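Provenance

Sequences were taken from public entries as deposited. Structures were produced by running a predictor on each sequence independently, with no templates supplied. The record for Hydroxymethylglutaryl-CoA synthase from Pseudogracilibacillus auburnensis is shown for reference.
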Amino acid sequence: MKIGIDKIGFYTPHLYVDMNELAVARDVEPEKFTIGIGQDEMAIAPITQDPVTLAANAALNILDEEDVSKIDFVMFGTETGIDHSKSAGVYVHHLLGLNPSARTIELKQACYGATAAIQLAKGHIALNPESKVLVLASDIARYGLQTPGEVTQGAGAVALIISADPKIMVLENEQAYVTKDIMDFWRPTYSDIAFVDGKFSNDQYLAFFNTVWAQYKEKANKNIEDFAAICYHLPYTKMGLKALRTILEEGEERTQERLQENFQLSTKYSRKVGNIYTASLYLGLLSLLEMNENLQAGERIGLFSYGSGAVGEFFSGVLQPNYRDYLIVEKHQELFANRKRVTVAEYEEIFTESLPTDGSTVEFETVNDPAAICLTGITEHMRQYLNKSEHSE
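Predicted structure for Hydroxymethylglutaryl-CoA synthase:
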């Protein structure tokens, strides 16, 4: 049975800050951000957007009536969950009006959570071929103002429908994965910002990639020549390039050129959004598929997932006939085109806004947020959400 990605959608907030302006404000040479880190813009989540709304908005763009009726499993990968007990996926399940006869869970392992969800979804589909699984990857990366990690912040979500006989990509069964208890990046429950050992994390990212790449080649009996492209988890876009460069010499010159060109295309969206943790790998995949019109059915895409702490995995997918017919390129281009650039001062003001931590009632005005699904406030310790599309019918 062929199982894989049937649909894929993306959402990011309507606000962003230009990295050149942020660099000037931080008394840093702009090239350090735009070239050294590889980021041009950074998405900013207003107070009316959280991981739930980002995921719901991403899914809203790809669902049709058949999907709504057939989705019987919702898996939400995130490392910025909003509740220690209740799955963020349950909120999305309600906001999208999905089939009540469904399982819904949240998965956590840093930036690896969505990959774990996809692999679990494959098992569910194998047992239930008529089912569809909604995998959500949604995060808001925060390190704090004027911190070393500030330049690698971001906000956004990717939604994927996993099914049998997928229209976009069949996920192959060979995978390689590794787990090791390390402290390269973590966020204790008492902190709303992450802690990171930057150099150590970079070194471990590369080490994990090379480990699973070697394991994958042996398991799958494949080599670098078998890939049209390799997509990477992108905490910042230069990180993926560093990993790719460690294996380029394994291929012929034309292969090296192809992989480097396709890597750059896979970073186009991330350069505009920033780090979105669990969704970063899949935003890279989406960017590649939408930016490269020359990829052909039958070509293989490699995927490297890394979640600090740490878990790494390498797996692959094969593009399906007419896959481009099932991408929503225009919607995503419109999403970027309609964003609003804010000043550094405005960004800092938005960043410092926060929800009450004592359960106090608060209401937010959502008229300035163009998203269909928004956070409208908190009442008696409960977050309140609004799906504007339901109220406009």
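Residues 198-220 form the longest helix (23 residues).
The longest strand covers residues 154-164.
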